[in-house]
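subagent[fold] <- orchestrator: predict structure for attached chain, return tokens only, no commentary.
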Amino acid sequence: MRAAALYGTLGSLVLTGLTGLPSAPAHAHAPDGRAEAHGVAQAAKLAAARGVDFDDCPASEGLPAPIECGTVTVPLDYAHPGGKQINLTVSRARALGREEDRQGAIVFNPGGPGGNGMFYPLLTRLPQWRNVAEEYDLVGYAPRGVGRSAPLSCVNPAGFGKGPTQAPEHPTEVYKKDQVKKAKAYAQGCARRNGADLRHFTSVNNARDLDVLRAALGERKLTYVGASYGTYFGALYATLFPTHVRRMVFDSVVNPDPRKVWYGNNLEQSAAFDRRWADWRRWAARHHAVYHLGRTPQEVLASYEKAVHALTRRAAGGRVGPGQLQGVFLKAGYTDSFWARAAQVLSAYLQGDDKPLLAVAGGEAGARAAENENAVYTAVECNDTPWPHSWEVWDRDNSKLAERAPFETWSNAFMNLPCAYWQGPRQKPLDVRPGRKSGLPPTLLLAAERDAATPYKGALELQKRLPGSSLVTERDAGTHGIGGGPNTCVNRYLETYLLTGDVPARRVYCAPRPEPRATT
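subagent[fold] -> orchestrator:
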């Protein structure tokens, strides 16, 4: 499950002996050797000399003028910086204000792994980013493997994501065996299609690429806003290059504890999505007069299960089954701005109208981009760390979790299961701990207390590890990615930090955004 996807991409099950997570095998290796460090310095020096040759964006990016596009060249393998090179696509909107007020560039990453940040310069059009856009160039990019940046692919995109699919909360042994078979085939497809290059798609290399991009943009130090998975490799950057940091924002924070990356994080994420699913059911019950889904959360759950059973018997439009319906409510788990739409879809379907459901969940447009995103997500997470290689461990841990958090535990597990059968060496996750004498300036963390994709304890963990950091919490809220949203309190702290570098107290709290309105 992404937390964009962790999502990119997750409990108590892990804390007790890591729920069977094996110790790093002999072939696991530390991610930052001397050769790689030298390779980053060499690549950054060359990138600084070349710069970025910005020009009009290609039509495929869908970015209108005056947004510009270009490329930055990075080594595939930083241990061999003179070897194979790959190009990362970059987008930019120039600062809107006076040249004398310009503070440099902000680089954005939306998460994933696999998220494409090329759209970020469009933030200049939003009023809540206007003051920041006056003083900064807004820069987005597609990380390695994503979009046109040396794209990864693991299966034929034409068949990727086609429905209908199932999403059993308590799968049978036959269903599990089928998913194991599919996971093995997917891992083999990734290895076959990408060869020896595949091992170099990692979070640590994403952090290294970020330093080369900084140099290519002509920035002595990096100003960065990362959301979701972007907080994780942003934290790796802060550890590897603390003296290269100017300002860093971590929005919706991945837990960086090496013991959690990534198997444990995904278990905790599944538990958190179940809590968020309960939040939505309570909201829908309060609005029974609008949606007619039930007067209690239990009755709303019964309405959902009724739809699941109906879609199991006959897929809507021949392509929307229980798996696609679950996807609608996973989206509602990410953002409460989708709560009303999800309720409308379920209500209409139960009243005999499947058109809203087909409109939301039945499309197959963008299959190539979706397959690419999934390939990058899988490659990065599988390469980053040793995963449990025994199906018995996965089966035990997820069966136990599904007893109390059934909503998407198994769907999440099966999405990540290729990592159990991954080929090639794994890394030991880098321990995020820059230290008080590292030179890292104050950083800003943003988090919602009920975020499902990146549970709140991840923000608390990262703050312990980043000296001088400040954490802004949106209380009793669960939208994933809160900076630049409707909460003016959060936005005030974010804007102040980006414009002045000032952080608030170590911990500050904002009231939640207004509850979603029940609309039809």
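orchestrator: received. Logging for downstream: The beta strands are 55-56, 68-75, 85-93, 104-109, 136-141, 222-228, 245-253, 444-448, 470-474, 507-510. The chain has 17 helices and ten strands.
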